[in-house]
Amino acid sequence: MRLAIRGLAKSFGATRALAGVDLGLRAGSVHALIGENGAGKSTLLRILAGALAPDAGTLELEGRPFAPRTPREAALAGVRMVHQELALCPGLSVADNLLLGEEPSRAGWIDRKARRERARAALEAVGRAGLPLEAPVASLAVAERQLVEIARALRGAPRVLVLDEPTSSLPREEVERLFALVRTLAARDVSVLYVSHALEEVRALCDEFTVLRDGQSVGSGAVAGTSEREWIRLMAGREVRELYPHSPRVPGEVLLRGAGIELRRGEVLGLYGLIGAGRTELLRGLFGLGRPPAGALEFCGETGPRTPRQRWNAGAGFVSEDRAREGLALQLTVSENISLARLERFSRRGILNQRALLGSGATWAELLTVKCDSVVQRCGELSGGNQQKVALARLLGAGSQVLLLDEPTRGIDVGSKAQIYAWIDKLACGTKTSSPRAVLLVSSYIPELLGVCDRIAVMRRGELGPARPAAEWTEERLLEEAL
Amino acid sequence: MNGTPRFTRSPAFGPLLGLVAAWALFAVCAGGDFTALANQRLMLLQTAVVGTAAIGATIIIASGGIDLSVGSSVALGTVLGALVLRAGGPVWVAALVCILAGMGTGLLLGNLVVGRLASSGVLLIGAIGALFAARSGTLAALAVLALALVASFVFARHKSRLPLSPFIVTLGAWGALRGLAKGLGDNQPVYPASTGWIGDLLGGGSMLPPGVWILLALAILASLLLRDTVLGRHIYAVGSNEETARLCGVDLERTRLSVYVIGVGLAGVAALLQLSYLSMGDPTTAGGLELRAIAAAVIGGASLAGGSGSILGALFGALLMTVVDNGCTKLGLDNWVQEIVTGGIILAAVALDRARARAQV
User: Fold this and answer.
1) Which residues of chain A have pLDDT under 50?
2) Torsion angle defined by CA atoms of residues A317, A320, A326 and A330, in that order, rounded to the nearest 10 degrees
3) How many CB atoms sit inside 10 A of residue A86's CB?
4) What percent of chain B is modeled with pLDDT above 90?
5) Which residues on B lie below 8 Å from A83 (Cβ)?
6) A137 and A93 in contact (C-beta within 8 Å)?
7) Which residue from A minimizes the CA distance to B228?
8) Nearest residue of A to residue B224 by CA position?
9) pLDDT-based confidence at B276, cuts 50/70/90?
């Protein structure tokens, strides 16, 4: 066993983040670590990285006790990490990033020749010797940045490489290249701990798996011979009967017409395309956040471009793909974030009615089952899935009739995904108390589009194709159209 | 992008263009008065102090920090140096006191920024003790300082930390150091009988006085520091992404302490040059110098968010501001016009730099 984890536990105050984790990582194997957000994955990774000390339990690396006190110690012992939020210095050059903290030097002066050679060798190890050494990392594409980070992790010949959701920001065509690299590394006897939400990736890449739930390891075994249904059951702790509920829907009047889109009340329209095809720009343009789309535009009874504020007031709502930077004010509380788009409704002559605000926040947080201590907790402290529910709650609270959702389930756990799908279905169908809404869903995740949408259109290099019923599409046809 | 020559992509290229343009503009408008050799010399002299301070500001800003207390440190330095000279101390001791006062202040500010409160307290007590001990001799003062220094590093082993934002720390220092300078000088300038060779740094008859050479030498050293040393790479890394730097095993505290010791130490050198320029210690001198130093760094391509900054660019920035001041004077324009123009240049420089950065991505 390359890395053996036994009975690992860690508490923060009254919160038990880890309550008994066992995990065995074999030499040269790719081991999937799966679990919902909040299941304890990040705590486990921080302990492995030496950023956190466990309360109880043991770690053994190749038979010897492994208790790193700093990231540096963990790295020297042979455990390296590639973070989801790529941990690079954007202004520094590729070479400087590769050698950060390990600059070859004599008496404090950098040995420029050794620096170049080592940086070059590090890039060769990931098969990208051609990357410019002196270019600032900020000028590279996401996939290249990730390779720089992997190359940095591979310097010093790690025994264990931890990849934390490495595909969450990669375009699809880069994912295969990454998989090939991971397989090469495993063949070279590096053990890879692969953290992911995407079960099809686990299926395609990994040899073994461990499922975490509520801080405990609740199942592990060989990937071959385990069904996805079984994984979902282990992660959620219950049977998820239907991931994509699809109740009967009745299309009503047109709420959005323009830019090649026609969206009716009671309808979910999906937009598929490769990253960079222009879907996000289209959505933002419709909402007044960027260049408005060319041609005539009718949106919520208004014609022509409007500002985001006017869009909110007219009954449209927008969920950004970038939760951390745009979607939510992470420093503000759950209730503040939910009400941010309609503070006027809680104020009289500019004075806010705090009690009504908190009450409304609490109602929506409860309806969407946002897991938080209270609605005055800061959003930054919530897990990704719960943050996304807060973002959706803002639209529901504002009574939005047209919901523009940009990658609303990216990087969140299966349980939260299932809840968001259920809400989309509920909104499109309408209930006794509320009329059906219209949803425009941008996603790069095909199963979700096929499951949730009534119609799907494909965007390719800024050109939007015709929308066809979801039943007429297959995964292959969507890809074909997008490429 | 490959078609453009390499030097045009350097962050110092924009400020250089601005400098050349401003110089040419005044050369045409003000004529011989402005282009005279003696005036070039004067402008270099006028840039020495702010240029030295701007080098320090650039290093600090590149690390993601800021120093708002430069003007006050310079005033304190001139008063301390002048006091040593008035008491009959050797000239080299006065010079050393200017520079060491800067480095010591830097150490104190650095300790506050990284949150070593106990160390900061010890340094503060040591500095006050040294001022009293100075009455019974230089050696006694040095002994007290050395003791405080050792104690500060002993106390640093204690793990508790309360980091403070550099903005707040140096805003406090901006007031406190100025007050200290006034107290030491009894609210008035300190006139030494003679400033010895210190007076020649920015005086004397030579075309390029030593002070200008000191500025150039420091600029080269600082450029090498930022480009070719491990510390320099770590300064940019900490300013660019602190979390990543920590993750990669960069010693954040040591990097920050070094940054403030070097950066505020350069303000000490600026104090020495200012003492030479004034021939006296003046507790009210160099008001607003901190903002001019920061402006020079920003015109030179530094981002206040940290992670970038060019020494050469900052020098050009400092020269540009001198050229504008000097040129406006030669044209007979009032002081307030200079101030408006300088403000406009800062805004234009940053706007152009951002536009350029956007065009490159």
Assistant:
1) none
2) 90
3) 17
4) 57
5) 247
6) yes
7) A110
8) A109
9) very high
Task: Determine what percent of chain B falls in helix, strand and coil, rounding each to the nearest 5.
Answer: 75, 0, 25
| Least confident stretch, B37-41, B72-76, B152-156 | B152-156
Q: Which of B228, B229, B237 sits opposite A89 (nearest CB)?
A: B237
> Interface pTM (ipTM) of the complex?
0.75
3-state secondary structure of B353: helix
CA distance A402 to A315: 7
The answer regarding whether domain B47-115+163-360 maps to CATH 1.10.530 reads no
The domain limits of chain B are 47-115+163-360
Question: Are B244 and A110 a contacting pair at CB < 8 A?
Answer: no
| Residue count (chain B) | 361
Q: How far is B315 from chain A (nearest CA, A)?
A: 21
CA distance A82 to A77: 16
Q: Residue B307: closest CA among chain A residues belongs to which residue?
A: A91
Q: What pTM was computed for the model? A: 0.76
Which of B228, B237, B361 has its CB closest to that of A92? B237
For chain A, which domains are there? Answer: 3-236 (3.40.50.300), 254-482 (3.40.50.300)
pLDDT > 60? residue B325: yes
A87 and B247 within 8 Å at the Cβ level: the answer is yes
- Residues of B with CB below 8 A from A103's CB? 230, 233
CA distance B322 to A349: 51
Helix (H) or strand (E) run with residue A351 in it? strand A351-352
Q: Helix (H, G, I), strand (E, B), or coil: what is residue A381?
A: helix
